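User: My collaborator sent over this chain with a note saying "see what the structure looks like." That's all I know about it. Can you take a look?
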Amino acid sequence: MTLTIGTWNLEWATPKTKAGPRIKEIIQQLNPDIFVVTEGCADLLPSTGHVIDGGKDWGYELRDDRHRKVLVWSKYPWSAVDQIGSSDLPSGRFVAGTTQTPQGDVRVIGVCIPWQSAHTNTGHKNRKNWEDHERYLTHLAPLLTVGTTPLVVAGDFNQRIPQGRQPQRMYDALIKTFNGLIVSTVQTEEPALIDHIAQSPNLRAESLAIIPDADELGKLSDHRGAVVSFALA
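Assistant: Without extra context I'll predict from the sequence alone. Here is the result:
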C-alpha cells in the first residue's frame, strides 16, 4: 500500500475566487491521503477527512476568517496536535500532528517558512530581509528529530531546491535544517519548486508528480505544488 502526500500554496484561494473551484477539484482528483496547504483555506480540501491548522496569527491582517498560512488535511484522524512547535518560531506558520494511517502512525509537520521580505515593508515592518526566514529555520531544526515513527515535513519552504538566486548562507541553513531527512520534491524541471515534501528514511518515495500553476482555463496559483507516493522503507 502506498501513502500519497501532496502540498500546494494556493495564493489565498477560496471557493469564491476564480480558481478556487478548479483547485478543489484538482485536489479531490489527486485522492491524497495527506495534503498540506499553505496560504489557503480548509474549504478547498476534501469534505471527508480531518484538518489541523497553524492558527490565525502570523502578524498580518486577516482578510478572510477562513485563511490560514498552513493547514494539513488527512483521510485519517489526528492525535498529538501541536500548533506552536517552539515559542521562538514565527507564529501561525507551523502545525504538527500524528495521523493514524492503515500503514501505521505518521507524524506530519506542515510549514510555511517566511519569505525573504516577511515583516520588512508590510506586517510588523520591523525585520530585515531573510530575518524571519532564518529565525524559523533555526528553531524548526530541533523539531525534526527522526524516530521510529515516520516523519513528513511539507509546505512552502520559500527557497528553491536545487539552489536558485537565494543567498548561499540561506540555502546552507535550509539544507542544514533538513539534515537527516530526504527532500523528495527535488526535480530538474525549471524553475525549481519552493513547495516541498521531505521525509524520514523509513519512508521511501516511489513517484513524484508536479501540480501545475495553470490549466486550460488560466492561472491556478503563483506556485506549483507537488504530490509524492510513499511506501514504508
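A starting point for your reply to your collaborator: Residues 97 and 119 are 28 Å apart (CA to CA).
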